[in-house]
Amino acid sequence: MKTPILFVISFFLLLSCSKNDADESNQDSAYIDDDLAGPISRPKTGYGSDGNYQVAKISFPSPLYSGKNVEIFYPKDITSPKPVIFYSHPYGGEESAYNIGLYEFIAKKGYVVVFAPYPTTGVTVDERYETLWESFKKAVTDYPGIIDTKKVGFMGHSFGAGASFALAHRGFIDEGWGQNGRFIFAMAQWYSYQITQAELQEFPENTKLITQVYNDDVTNDHRLAIDIFKNINIPNSEKDFILIKKSVLPTFTYTAEHNLPNTQSSYDAYDYYGIYRLLDAMIDYSFNGNLTAKNTALGNGSKEQVTMPSYNGQPLSPLEETDNPSPLYPQSKYSFQCGALNNPRITNCN
User: Strand pairing of 7-9 and 310-311?
Assistant: First the structure.
């Protein structure tokens, strides 16, 4: 079972921070695989299944965070640059080991992911954003043989999810990245700085978006994610808002807390089916134009999108999709509330 990981520092409290052919029957057995916690294995085929590439890694010193390295995970032995995902980690999750399963999954599928650490103390939010941006820029500048900036995704969790919109705006608008494919994948979003209402209306028309929130999250108010989702200029046909709920089996609970996904506290089927599967399909749709992939990534509640595996006849809670999200809980549930004075978009709270 996933256990909460809280980082209490100053006023911040954030946690470190191919079509899916498999249906319920694929996992309706006692098949237990490798390193995943719980009785359900990773998908064996289709979206969410591991790719065939071996993973290589390059590290270089962070341009603004002394003593830390930016890491690039990529498919080994590639002979041409590959599409890239720029990943912004949760507050406190500055070691790649925290979510190494995600980065290796992306590289195994044939794509590049850039992981950039930023400090948790002694700096401002703006300085963290700048650390992320300068790290991404240096990766692009120094490794053109690995990174193809014509196909680009920005992905983040918690603090990193909130940052991903401003960073994506810089990449897509200022740099022109993603002309042949763009997306944003935001998980358990914190406050979003450096993005105005006008800038939210400027995203290029080929931009896609998946926003995920987790039902048992008590850290970040879901209103933060709802605000950006509703105000960004991406049409409903190219974005989906996803709620993940926990599933209780007789011997294992798949939780939907703030720290989903991560590889350290529990690496399980929710990482693969709830996140990796949709990401895999989003990449295929955004970068390759595969409409079958869209039915999984942005399926508007399709069976292919929301169905989770089952175990011994008991299905896991399906994903819940909507284009018109509304808060399920009062702000008092959360440590970081939409109505807090340090939310730069406080006027958008409902």
Answer: unpaired
